[in-house]
């Protein structure tokens, strides 16, 4: 499930996923990363951002998936996560988004951002036997 109709914060997107017995997507390898990327779909001359389910409770804390699965794959963009370069006074960047930018070297890579930022896409994931 992806949702381009309303920009949402990390928490709003996770709650929307929960309504479908799902969580923001966890990603466990390069093939799954590409699959998630292709769900949102790169669009010519556009920069898109999609929430993924990776977050931490505080700066310096351990990154975790919202579905509780192991963090066994990471695909951070160069220099990320950087908590906005560690600039004091800024809202901590404790949530992750995926870049969807056709042709850019950072396409499909991840960035840490503040959780209250509103992003235009998100992808939910649930177990096949969710009923």
Helix count from the secondary structure assignment: 2
Q: Which oligomeric state applies?
A: single chain
Q: What amount of the residues lies in strands? A: 15-25%
The number of domains:
1
Mean pLDDT: 89
Structural class: alpha+beta
Query: Which blocks of ≥5 consecutive residues have pLDDT under 50?
Result: none
Order of SSEs, N→C?
A: HEHEEEEEE
Overall CATH class: Alpha Beta
Share of helical residues: 10-25%
Stated plainly, the CATH topology is called Mannose-Binding Protein A, Chain A
Based on CA atoms alone, the radius of gyration comes out at: 14 Å
- In whole angstroms, the N-to-C terminal distance is 17 Å
- Judging by the overall fold, what is the CATH architecture? Roll
How many beta-strand elements?
7
Organism: Ancylostoma ceylanicum
InterPro entries: C-type_lectin-like, C-type_lectin-like/link_sf, C-type_lectin/snaclec_domain, CTDL_fold
Pfam family, one: Lectin_C
Protein name: C-type lectin domain-containing protein
Task: Outline the structure in words.
The protein has 131 residues and is α+β, with helices and mostly antiparallel strands. The chain has one domain (10-125): Roll (Mannose-Binding Protein A, Chain A), CATH 3.10.100. The chain is built from 2 helices and 7 strands, in the order H-E-H-E-E-E-E-E-E. Strands 2, 3, 4, 5 and 6 form a 5-stranded mixed beta sheet that branches. It has a two-stranded antiparallel sheet with strand order 1-7. Strand 4 and strand 5 form a beta hairpin. It is globular. Residues 8-124 form the C-type lectin domain.
Keywords:
alpha+beta, 131 residues, 2 helices, five-stranded mixed β-sheet, Mannose-Binding Protein A, Chain A
